[in-house]
Amino acid sequence: MELNPFVIFIAAIFTSNILLTNFLGMCSFLSVSKEIESSLGLGFAVVFVMTFTSAINYAVYHYILVPLDIVYLQYIIFIIVIAAFVQLTEMVIERFSPVLYYSLGIFLPLITVNCAILGISLFMVIREYNFVQSVAFGAGGGLGWLLAILALAGIRAKVNYKFVPTGLQGAGLSLIITGLMALGFIGFSGIVVIQ
Amino acid sequence: MIITIANTVIIVSGISGFLAFLLVLAEKFFANYGECKIDINGKKELVIEGGSSLLASLNENKIFLASACGGRGSCGFCKCTVKSGGGPLLPTEKPFLNSQEINKGVRLACQIKVKEDLQIEIPEEIFNIRKFKAEVSQIRNFTYDIKELTLKLIEPNEIDFKAGQYVQLEAPPYEKSKHSVTRAYSIASSPLHKDYIQLIIRRVPDGICTTYIFDYLQQGDNINFTGPFGDFIIRDTQSDMLFVAGGSGKAPIKSMLEYLQNQGSKRRMIYMFGARTKDDLYLTEEFRELEEKLADFTYVPVLSKPKEGTDWQGKTGYIPPYFPEYIKDPQNTEAYLCGSPGMIAAVKKGLLENGVSEDKIYYDSF
Fold first, then answer.
1. pTM given for the model
2. Is residue A14 packed enough to be buried (19+ CB in 10 Å), middle (13-18) or exposed (0-12)?
3. ipTM for the assembly
4. Fewer CB near the last or first residue (10 Å), C or N of chain B?
5. Which among A80, A92, A103 is the nearest to B91, CB-wise?
6. Which SS3 state, helix, strand or coil, does residue B360 take?
7. Is B22 within 8 Å of chain A by CB?
8. How far apart are CA B242 and CA B297, in angstroms?
9. What pLDDT, in 10s, does the model give residues B50-85?
């Protein structure tokens, strides 16, 4: 079925949120969501990297891997492309926007191993998207990830002022909240579903 | 089979190689800042390879801005005024600067990456700052937790400093610490002796540097330090001087008093030395002698907790309650404080209550 790229974009943000339905990119999601400000920084970095790597990986897959018949190498190739792209982005940001560079800090290199980014590239292949659909999926996936981490950071900022039993403090309660958020996002599935 | 393996290896290497090539190009293009000129106070111009921090670039050229954290942006000592270049103020610098400094263009040198020509201003004294190699020629115990080190200069063999300034001593890596650490200590000897300095050091429980000095450093060892730093110096006026310092805070005061004595100063001076018990007092004889040598100097040790049954005849309790007794003309009194931030705050409050004006209270807090 040929899906409208805009539908994919919306679906990637809400109904098929890569974090809340596929639970990808959890490690940075849990550790960085302590503060809203850094969540926002990391979130935007993810949006940026996801959008561009989905485009680049689309090209690499369809113009290199498929013609050469080495599709089974996609994991390693995708990872190398993502790593190189993150490195390149870091250099460009450092040169042109030192303020952004310092506010992103260690998060930018961490994106290299954010599984949500690789996930987007792999889903794009499995679901046989065309180029525009892939980019829409990448941008939507990134925004969805940003939305999820921002929501959790907001909730955790509130939780800081509440009593939490010792056993639930930190990641424990965060995971429960994430689960509840995932349930909440299922409510969106009336709009559109892509799987 | 072999061909397939060779093929995949070639393809993966090809793609990786291409990306590596791209990154090398990017590195050349984006991360290469070429030669940058640093203009210092309009007097000196350095030409350096861009890309590293301003602090490191200055250090390489033997201009030593103070830095206790070694360029991690956590001490806020390496301030300098940047007139042009240097990019926008970074979030990592803001906590260390007040609005006045921000307006003047004060920045932290360790956070600025040299990417273009810079025009900076640093205090003239900084040109005096050098790295010194010295030999520990004497170690004296003053109390159970305070020692005096005498460091004979080897290279360079003379130091120019003002009484009240401090140096940063470098403890090399040893059993308790994998890295070398630097800590600031005030110079206790008079600036008239240029071939050696003395430091008064109080043991900090589990302190990396003081543990090294107390348990590892031996007479005859070599040790490095940089300096002199600091603006805790004697103001050249004729006002009365009130010194308040306890523990190793005595060091800069000793240097100042010895210097003033040599200059034949006629100023009225009081030194109130705060300590807990009699065991914490040291150099009392020397300061009593200074009372004789100086025209108008009084040394007042004050014990906060003299032990029961000891024959302590002097003042007891805290220092501020004694201010009315010793401050004759508050409008015409300069106060020089040296101690912990808590002690400084308490003493400053007492001085303000007694009418000493805030801009005449100078302090070195550690």
1. 0.56
2. buried
3. 0.76
4. N
5. A103
6. helix
7. yes
8. 10
9. 888 888 888 888 888 887 777 778 888 888 999 888
